[in-house]
Amino acid sequence: MGSQGSAWRGERASLEHTLRVPPSLAALRFVLDQAEPPRIRYPCSLRDFVPSNMTDSSLPGTATLAPDLLLGEPVTDATHAEFVQLLDAATRADDAGFLAALDEWIDHTRHHFGQEEAWMEAMAFGPQHCHRGEHEQVLAVAGAVRDKVAEGDLALGRRLLSELPGWFDQHVKAMDAMMVNHMRENGFSLIEAPSEQAA
After folding, report:
1. Is residue 114 part of a domain?
2. Cα-Cα end-to-end distance for the chain
3. Contact 52, 82 (CB under 8 A)
4. How many C-beta atoms lie closer than 10 Å to residue 23's C-beta?
5. What is the domain extent for residue 155?
6. 137: CATH
7. How many domains would you assign to the chain?
8. Is residue 23 part of a domain?
9. pLDDT by residue (tens digit) across 8-65?
10. Is residue 25 a part of any domain in this protein?
11. Phi/psi zone of residue 96: left (φ > 0), alpha (ψ -120 to 50 degrees), beta?
12. Rounded distance, CA 71 to CA 2, Å?
């Protein structure tokens, strides 16, 4: 990766220090030395990026989301419920189905994070770069671990999944809560989440 790789490792170290990455996730950072810098699309409109695999009406509603993780914004809460459901499905997957389940969670998470970043950019949300930095850190770790799983290291993948709930709890209560509060305070309203009673 040359100088670009060195710069990326420097950025990663700076992010870890600035964001105080939980030690459990930071313990996996050794795999990042082989990871390319993340390439994430940043849409520029609140309604510009609502992937078809998000807020899927075939998935359960927010009942599976812990009450202390509900932020009261329907689209965000529905997406977070899907994050938890797909993470749980990957955790419960047998060895034969583990990589596919991990890929599904990573794909959803990439779109989930991209959607939040689109909203923050459209709102000119001040702390968006710090918030985005946490997203990039987790996606980089997940992508690098995914590559190790594809090579047969399922234990590393399962370790990642066991550590993510703690990170997610902190991220929702700090970063996402600030984002949703900014939406409310500035009159931003998102599209409605699908009704659980939809035909």
Report:
1. yes
2. 51
3. no
4. 9
5. 2-45+71-185
6. 1.20.120.50
7. 1
8. yes
9. 455 445 444 444 455 545 445 444 444 444 343 333 333 333 333 333 433 445 557 8
10. yes
11. alpha
12. 43
Count other C-beta atoms under 10 Å from residue 108's C-beta.
20
Q: What is the pLDDT of residues 102-146, one digit of tens each?
A: 999 999 999 999 999 988 988 888 889 999 999 999 999 999 999
Count Cβ atoms below 10 Å from residue 11 Cβ, excluding itself.
15
Compute the distance between CA of residue 170 and CA of residue 186 in angstroms, rounded to an integer: 24
In angstroms, rounded to a whole number, what is the distance separating the alpha carbons of residues 16 and 102?
24
**φ, ψ for residue 11 (rounded to 5)?**
-60, -45
Statement: the pTM of the whole predicted model exceeds 0.70:
no
Decide if 59 contacts 194 (C-beta within 8 A). Answer: no
Cα–Cα dist 40/37, whole Å: 10
Cβ 144 vs Cβ 35: under 8 Å: yes
DSSP line for 113-177: HHHHHHHHHHHT-TTHHHHHHHHHHHHHHHHHHHHHHHTT-HHHHHHHHHHHHHHHHHHIIIIIH
Q: Is 191 within the bounds of a domain?
A: no
